[in-house]
Amino acid sequence: MASTLAALTAAALLGVVLMVNPGGTGQRDRTASAEPAGPADAVDAAELESVEPPDTSELAEEYLTPEEAPGAWSSDTSAFPEPLPRGRSWPEVPPSVLTTEGEVSEDGLSQVMAAYHWMCAWEDEAVTAAAGKDPARAAEAVAQLEKFTGLPGIVDNLQNSDSWVEHVLVPAREGEFVEMEDEFEGPTCDGYRETEASR
After folding, report:
1. Where is the region Disordered (predicted)?
2. Total count of domains within the chain
């Protein structure tokens, strides 16, 4: 169950990343055709020159470039509506999915990534407290995690939120943290764990 949930979560995150080819021309590659070029395939150079390039100005406003990511991340984390656990702080460097050269991400992904970082921080707190036999601290963490599905960037983007509540949050409310620990140790929180390990 945990692996299915992790796969759904990863798919939801990765689904908002768009791969681009900075060196691409956008023209059709005719060299791959199995048929020899004939009169029907001949292209008039003057005709090609007269083709207007598509207007991408509106698209540019909908996507976040790697150069814009640090500013978006700083803005989203400084204005985040809920606190991190005591002793934790937001990483200054945005997640690598936002800064990978040759990729752009949908505007708003920074906010989604901030919410997942927050969630992983509180899951870390809950799992650590449960393992340390500190039920009060674990309960505080679970109370924070109750807010996850209503966070900015999550409320409109997280599919299967009911499944997450049912399989991760509900057992934790009852003192069972196996599913939450599995999620925390899985791909959903890879970025959070790497960030914390590097501090």
Report:
1. 25-103
2. 1
